[in-house]
Amino acid sequence: MTLQSQPNFVHYPETASQTGGPYVHIGLAPKQAGFEIFDNNFGSVLVTPDTRGERIQVEGRVFDGSGSLVRDVLVEIWQANAEGKYAHPGDLQDKAIDPSFRGWGRTGTDFETGVYTFETIKPGSVAGRGGALQAPHICVILFARGINLGLHTRLYFSDETDANSRDPVLNGIEWEVRRKSLVAQRSERNGKVIYNFDVRLQGTPDGGEETVFFDV
Amino acid sequence: MQIPAAPRSVAYGEFAQHPPACTPGYKTSILRSPRNALISTVNTLSEVTGPVFLPQELGPLDNDLIMNFAKGGLPIGERIIVHGFVRDEFGRPVRNALVEVWQANAGGRYRHKNDKYIAPIDPNFGGCGRMLTDDNGYYIYRTIKPGPYPWRNRINDWRPSHIHYSLSGDGWAQRLITQMYFEGDPLIAQCPILKTIPSEEQIRGLIALQDTANHVPLDSRCYRFDITLRGRRATHFENQLQGAK
After folding, report:
1. Which of A32, A36, A185, B118 is most open to solvent, judged by the fewest CB atoms within 10 Å of its CB?
2. CA distance B217 to chain A (A)
3. Active site includes B18?
């Protein structure tokens, strides 16, 4: 069979990306921009009382190449449920969907403190390619003024050392010293489990190491 | 056991079609761009799946920017309709994609607490909308044509009229944010943000064309803007994305 005989041979270039700009909140987080417009807002709380799994809070800050806080970032996350199943018809793993968990959320870094926060659950392990198992992780994407193409990264968990050591994506990072930039640190505060995940868009002169970003 | 059809991987990002991360003419990119190369990965379930949105999550006026913030009057400015198709690289419609748009008002002023431009807020204009594509990948919304806008890059830089777009397609790897411009705007040729894009052809892909045939007489003009997201490839000789069982 030749390529030309396939009905899908036509190919169009992907529409070019552009920065989200400083006012990305108007469209994607209008309350943070300072006004109410939609009855139903997408936000940073991924859980309802019925959601299954361990409640966690993911929080962090984003820094630029001078070590300064980036206060106008739009952060989105995408993750599996507590069993390691994505709420999407393309996930054919033999695991249960959690009807109370979409697995997606978005928020902005605070204009004053630069902190972003998600209320979610700790995801289970998801199948990788070829029978490998991926360590629990959350997919993260960042958009902001000055970022021309959304930056993809992954958040892993500091209390999953064994699983992390076998994770095919982490192990695909040739420079072992860079892998730790993807591991969120677990702590507890007022009875809540917190994972801190700071992102450095660019290495800093004082030794702050750049976060690993992926071409997915 | 019969393995169900594996989800197909998404075609890899072709970076020649996008702006590089560091584009010094757009000054903010200098300190906000990684210095290391992106790490390329093969798709897993994490990248080929993505959030699913339901029609009932949206309100009836969410795609009508003329009416969705009107407080007893209509917003001031050029009434326009924008419509088009969202397809993937292989020409297939992207169904149920979440399309979100935001923009300045007719004078180039954004309704945002950090925008201090002297042009006034329009009390009847919010500036954001959203919709889901239908089974043909089609979307449509109505708005006021945004005005150009000055910004501190070089001291006399002005953005062309533009509408920001966010697209959430069928998979996380398709996630895209971009901007749409208007045919014939002389500011397009001078814009440092547009100039981050490496080819003229890709810049043209962001310019909506006036769709005269679809003007609404004595009411609104119309622009046509189609969007291409990354496509799913057929899985010819491997079935390992899922993890064989």
Report:
1. B118
2. 29
3. no
